[in-house]
Amino acid sequence: MTPNAIVLENVELNFPNPKGFMSSIKNIVSKSEDDFKALNDINLAIQTGEVFGLIGKNGSGKSTILRIIAGIYAADSGSCRIKGSTSLLAGLGTGFSQHQTGVENALLYGSILGHSESEMRGLLPEIIEFSELGDFIHKPLRTYSAGMKARLGLAVASAICPDILLIDEVLGVGDPQFREKSKQRILELVKKTGTVVIVSHSFGLMTDICDRIGVVHKGKLEMVGEPQDAIKSYYDLTG
Amino acid sequence: MGESVEEDVLRQVGVKPSPLYAPLYALKTMTKNRFLIRNLVSREVRGKYRNAVLGYGWTVIEPALLTVVYFFLFFMLVGNPDKLYSVWVLVGIIIWGCFGKSLQAGVTSLTRNKNTIHIVYFPRLIFPFTAVISNIVITLMSCIVLLPVIYVFDLPLTIHLILIPAAVFLAGFLAIGLGMVLAPLNCIYRDIEHLTRFVVRAGFFVSPVMWTYEMALERGGFGEIAMFNPMLTPITLARHGLEGKFTTLPAEAILFSVLTGIVLWLLGSFIFERTERRVVKYL
Question: Which residues fall within 8 angstroms of residue B277, CB to CB, at 6 or more apart?
């Protein structure tokens, strides 16, 4: 059996319901009963080298699971253990500054994603080339179109090579040609990376690339299995 | 299964040092993430003066214009003040502005960066740090306005001018501690940022911005009360530095201000590290 890369055990996560003055004070110290249960008793082991998909309706908790693995949210109870470094691809281009040039933004975004200065300087030529921005790379970001920003974001985000790659619905940006290219790039990244957890609504893609898929429904991991079975179970659950 | 062997390699996500180490951890975070902090600071500083023809000139123009306004206000109320009075007001505005803006930026640092927080994890202490450091940088730039002032008012160019940047850093240091205390709370109650804005306004009058430490001393008992304001030291230090003297502030006042900063740092980093993970869920 291959070793595990991600192990979630009895993970629970509650989102506080800010109501009264005192109840929220209490919330900082301890959790209360009327919180919104975003994740309920999640148990999951993902093996090294596996491409694991998560499907479920909006608000079912898929992204929250990714955020737990990425360390953005801390589980209220249970544990999440991982092997190696993680990187979450979501909301490409977060933190971009409208008034700085493409290069400066690439460095900024790279540092936000946790790269050191020397790493970023090394990756820069590749990023510039992939983004296909040409001379625009030295112009302020406010002169960019939405698609150009997305391209720069993807170019930076996909230049990384973590041990565990977490992808949250980042496919489908830019014009059709670039969309195809970005899909290829992410697929390449998926192949290159040891372990991948991917959240997406495009079941076709998921069936193609995932080894196993988990179905999340109302904060619970309802089933884990072969892509076909999981998608069937998704339709059974959601109707 | 052979799993137990592999389990050792797995690491728990999000393990942090005990909050008791937080003050040191905060320092380490700052040095370890220099590149990120530098990029974030430059984003903030540049973003501030975007699309302005005068650009960074505003760092200088804003305190200068405010000084003119306050000078005339005071002139009308009190009559003919000391000719250096406007200079002291200018220094007061710069240093108090550094504290006030740093504090406001620090308090709102988590709420303003909500999108980033939802997407990547890096030590969140970086948000209040960046907010305060950006304002320190902007304030240091606005200190350039003091060069023509030194020339016009024939003030001495001495080594004591070093007290001015020192005062800026002290004001920022006081703001960063308080910012770390209040930023997590502001995630839950946005009331905090409105309250902070009020406190900064009110503090403008309570602190020696439009009056000086020497004026307070002349009034007797009032001066002693003024001593309990940690912002008295940075503002007065900067004024004395500009005047070309080391400082006539009593050591207690300086010590009080620095100690307040240290206590706020200890308290702030502890509270921030302790609550940060819970409060981000409110964002």
Answer: A73, A74, B14
